[in-house]
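Narrative of accomplishments. A recurring question from our advisory board has been how the design workflow behaves on a single, concrete structure rather than in aggregate. To address it, we present the structure tokens for one chain from the evaluation set, followed by the sequence designed for it. No filtering or post-editing was applied between the two.
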């Protein structure tokens, strides 16, 4: 089945992707989708980078290339001290974890403040997200409001220095072993990527507690995050795989199609990307 160009504005539902038989069709189209449909232009499928993919075959090929290029083995290099430092920092699927570190000097170049309610007032760097994630968060909050769900953003971007202070404080209060399961060391935090936001609700006093996952807001977030391009990054039962305790409040932007695939497959981001080695 071929996808023909049309002069009419339209949206291409996911089911159309399935009939093409191209599971990877939108994995590469750097994830500027909303809801259950992709944005299209008069000349074809518009990517997150502004370029257009005009045919299904080209989109599938680009998707495969994108995921292969972002496979873990291709996106990190050891520095002089032997630390594995990620190299695809601008990618929306950049993988940061206990084994893969961001440079202390890395700061995203496209940080903005999303137009959503926050749990605190005043200006702060932690209100920021990278632009594609911020746009997606605005849509997620709008979707939640439409469904009668009230959410507030708590903590987004954090610099390397900020994360260093947070981990040191947690290690002092809880002990290093506990801190290592509940917070990231400097350079190992997804918050430094500008693609992660902690979200909470009044039902738990806007705290970041596992009980949030049992609230109607937490349940809504888990059920709907992928529609807007987010995953629950540290899922329940995935502790041994991620190295972190369950965090129902921590959502990570990866793009609608990939978020949907990760959620459908029940995988971690690591497991999903490792498939494309």
């Amino acid at each position: 089945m071929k996808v023909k160009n049309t002069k009419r504005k339209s949206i291409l539902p996911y089911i159309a992707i399935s009939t093409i038989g191209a599971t990877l069709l939108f994995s590469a189209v750097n994830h500027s989708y909303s809801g259950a449909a992709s944005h299209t232009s008069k000349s074809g499928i518009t990517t997150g980078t502004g370029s257009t993919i005009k045919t299904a075959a080209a989109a599938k090929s680009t998707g495969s290339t994108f995921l292969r290029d972002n496979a873990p083995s291709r996106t990190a290099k050891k520095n002089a001290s032997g630390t594995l430092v990620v190299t695809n920092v601008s990618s929306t699927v950049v993988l940061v974890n206990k084994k893969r570190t961001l440079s202390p000097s890395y700061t995203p170049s496209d940080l903005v403040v999303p137009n959503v309610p926050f749990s605190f007032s005043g200006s702060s760097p932690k209100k920021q997200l990278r632009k594609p994630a911020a746009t997606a968060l605005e849509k997620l909050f709008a979707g939640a409001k439409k469904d009668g769900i009230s959410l507030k953003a708590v903590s987004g971007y954090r610099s390397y220095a900020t994360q260093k202070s947070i981990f040191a404080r947690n290690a002092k209060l809880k002990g290093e072993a506990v801190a290592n399961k509940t917070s990231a060391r400097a350079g190992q935090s997804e918050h430094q990527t500008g693609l992660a936001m902690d979200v909470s609700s009044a039902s738990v006093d806007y705290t970041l507690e596992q009980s949030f996952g049992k609230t109607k807001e937490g349940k809504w977030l888990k059920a709907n995050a992928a529609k807007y391009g987010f995953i629950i990054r540290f899922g329940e039962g995935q502790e041994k795989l991620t190295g972190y305790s369950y965090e129902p409040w921590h959502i990570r932007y990866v793009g609608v199609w990939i978020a949907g695939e990760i959620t459908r497959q029940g995988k971690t981001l690591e497991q999903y990307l490792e498939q494309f080695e």
